[in-house]
Fold each of these.
Amino acid sequence: MKKSIFVAAFALLFAGSVKAQLLWKISGGGLEKPSYVIGSHHLANVSFIDKIAGVKDALTETDQVYGEVDMGTMTDTEAMGYMQKAMMLPEGQTLKDVLTPGQYQKLDKFLAAKLGVGFSSPEVANSMGRMKPYTIVTQLIVLTYMMNHMGEFDPSTTFDMWFQAQAKKNNEPVGGLEEIKFQADLLYNSYPMERQAQLLECFIDHNDYQASMLEKVTKAFYDQDLDALKKASDEKIGNSCDSTPEENAALVDNRNADWLTKMPEIMKKTPTFFVVGALHLPGEKGVLQLLKNAGYTVEPVK
């Protein structure tokens, strides 16, 4: 079943039937000590961590934290320079060059309705006029959620960041399964410009639907109800706005497979607490099943 690319962009794909569980213990397979993996949601409130059973014990039993990326690299000048460049259009281009007149007018009207100002504002024109269309999509997703949940979400201290901060507080190593450059290319360089423009138009045309779906996904995450999370992520519009199988594979399945080439050696050397997007975990191509296929015992932590 097709999934909305806007949910997939948060790496929140889910398949399978595993209910009310975010934290999993990984043992066996030659490991001397267990490791753990927890599903995250990039818009989740950090205080929710206290409601997940077994988290503090799992952190105590492990000696390092691995995320999708090492958040510490966010301060690396070279990595962040690459990310910023990937988010922007080539030198000399603006949105007027890559959007149709109709798409540009839709975006201008949308920004005016949501922000109170559109491209007639020099500040908006200068800050957004050179962004790639999909850069604007990712920013509008977060902005829309924050506007609907004033004071509930702090982008400077996310769910993922908290675990890495705890490791550093305890003088434990922090690592990443991917590099910032990889994620920059995945989000901003892998989609052809015409597809990026189409996805931006899709976001505008179906904004209420996308906001409603994100609300369902977030509520299901807070309920730790992965069946409901799957159902929400499986919703589709039924047109070209839905992600293609190839896009889904690039965003989720291929990354899961790549992580499973790295996790065994990481766990063998050091008991590790992994933090990845919640819907990378289940399904036949999900991290949990891939770990089982590799000979590990994978159990929910109650």
Amino acid sequence: MEIGIVGLPNVGKSTMFNAITKAGAECANYPFCTIEPNVGIVPVPDERLDNLAKLYNPEKITHAVVKFVDIAGIVKGASKGEGLGNKFLSHIREVDAIVQVVRCFENGNITHVDGSINPLRDVETINLELIFADLETLEKRMDRAVKMARTDKKHQVEVDALNKIKASLEAGKLASSVTLTDEEKEMLSDFYLLTAKPMMYVGNLSEDQLKTYDTDENFLALKKYAEENGSEAIPLCVKVEEELATLEDDEKAEMLELMGIEEPGLDKLIKASYKLLNLMSFLTAGEPEVRAWTITIGTKAPAAAGKIHSDIERGFIKAEVISYSDLMECGSMVKAREKGLIRFEGKEYVMQDGDVVLFRFNV
């Protein structure tokens, strides 16, 4: 899973990337400091693994991960190559989902590329550039599809789908807002339309705003926009997150308590990113390793087994399954087995988030 972090110059996206990954992406108070995308692999926070480790005392603990890509800032005209637009657009095509960092704080020492703070204008700037780029993609594909539809009527489905998306884009709406049939989705899957990608928003607040974000005018405007577009807006203070990232766990907990924050904003972001792509985790546990495995919601047991090894999927016999909550309540697999809480599931079983599984197979 690959998440692209985007935003206008100087909104705090590279600082946020640093805090997320501790990778040290260069930050500076001028546009286009991030030229090549910085990439960081980040574990998905999951306390279930730590609790399972107390039961099994494994040699290692392996979290599910999210890959974050910090992409060069965008400006008006990026779709036509302004600024570093060409690099921005090529890099963003490769990610699975997009997180837009939107500046909601005032600071006279940090230049805003448009001269003032206006979250909705900033979002519109980025979305319009993505829309313009998608329209260009559609125009190129439309000519080909129309020609092919003259001799092969199955391509008329593609033409109809392209027209629906084009009408939406020309109205200033994202391609993700268009309702498509399964056939149309499959036909357009190789288009890599930028505005068809799942998207969410991060409101970068000052420390003072973070304490009252639920009444902050700038963040509320961003939140309303996100909700109206079937998305989510997460409040965080990038500077606070940057400081938290340098602290040990006990120091971090103390700082969060002093600030009255339940969990770091970046933990919320990572979890929300995982959720954005309709993903979940099943768990495996034993003395060698306690591990979370990433699968799409709705995955059946054999395909989940294939995440571990293709041979397990190929030779799948059954899955021994217990829910994480039942296992923790029992305190051991032995007691869970005595209580009859371990289930034997076959090939049609749909995996559930937090299933603790042992796959039986034969090859």
Amino acid sequence: MNARVIPAPATPSLAAGEERAIAFGGGGEWFTCWTLAYAATAKAHGVDLSNVDVTVGTSAGSIMGSYLTSGRVDSAYTQFKELAAHPEALEKMVVTDTGAESQVRATKVLSTATSTGTESIKEIARAAMASKNASAETYAASLEKLLFGNTWPSQAHHVTAIDCYTGERVIIAHDSGIPIATACAASSSVPGVNGPVWIDDHYCMDGGISTSSTHSDLVAGAKRVIVFSLMSQAPKSGAFGFAMRIDPDSIHAEVRYLESQGSKVMLICANPADGTNFMDPAQMAHALELGAARATEDAAALAAFWND
């Protein structure tokens, strides 16, 4: 079975009737670290998120969802703490800056877009495809190392990306025949940074270049849904938080939609400080600290929501 194009809202969703579901949004290395520390710390407090039935991951969330559903949260947490102590190691592993003017141009097109409509997304995609980035194969190979291999982590996990030509949402799952590192590379192909990546016959960019940064509609109808979003309010500028920058109510509208479909929802937002560089490995240690602190703060409410 190939990767699938699924319009929003998904009808039916991937999690209708399931007990537990999680949607992980994007946010670069920073949000990968934040959510990873959150999940590992929550587990230490007696809330194991890995008993989830369906996960949807976008960009950084595609990686986090892979760790969670493969049972490798603790191993990944240890790995990223080591990388945070030596950020130069990740810079060597994941090369993104080629020094090309086309990368600057693509980043500008993304950060100055004023609409999440299809034509706007296609314009961003054209800039992404015209950007001289490091090879997609090299990027996928680096993710394979970070993901402890290339085997799909679980039938529970689904990855989102955006077709550059049509602007449509592409969903990649365990039965697609796509290696997990390739799927995550496509999902995290930020215009002007890396990718795009071929997924079957779709040339794909970052799943967050969409009306949603979490694609939580894909898990509507699950009894309990956690949505991990980088932000709960609009960022002042930048390439990250695309949907929130243009429509500050978007994540809250997603929650309302989930609730209208019968799901109980817990929205968890990191809300990093303005000016945070989400792609800077030097910021990983702080992200890990913040994610762990937030999980400790949320522990009682999270247990009441998630545990039987």
Amino acid sequence: MDSFSTVIRTASHEEHVQAETSTFMSDMLGGRLGVDAYARYTEQLWFVYEALEAGAERLASDPVAGPFIQPELFRQASLERDLAHLRGPQWRSRVSALPATEAYAERVRECARQWPAGYIAHHYTRYLGDLSGGQIIRDKAEKTWGFARKGDGVRFYVFEQISNPAAFKRSYRELLDAVRADDLEKQRIVAECKRAFALNTAVFRALGEEFPLSA
């Protein structure tokens, strides 16, 4: 019988691929978009992580979600440093959430308030993605737009408190395998994971409409 971490990864594979291969992400990673598109994407991430981390302190004592609340993962402060670099010191007055981002963030907040097990699905799709594919984005951003290696502009992707990402991801998957949920609840978590990827893809689609390649 497959472990829950294997089940959740396998069941959401198609949605994961759709997100990774969206037109916007392909164009950005291919160097076909300017730094403003990258900055706009970073703005959207801030709204999602603000929602993810706003409820973290309260969820830390939750028997289901609590084990996943690990401060070394927190990204909001790094995003704020990146946005100060990308948008200037008054960045808070210059950033805005796309409607798709607002929907994504609201779903995260809803799960954080009402359904800790569902919050895990969003936690998993975001943070493990940052530790994995996010490093490809960092490398491309440094090379394409000249950011200092692991410096301001790409600090979101730099997990300074995680010295061994591979070992951390293994321990994270062990937490998933040990999650306190029955089979029905695990099925609901898997469905929420798929929803999280779909919400993320919707953000990419909206960004693609905002930054179409010139024909």
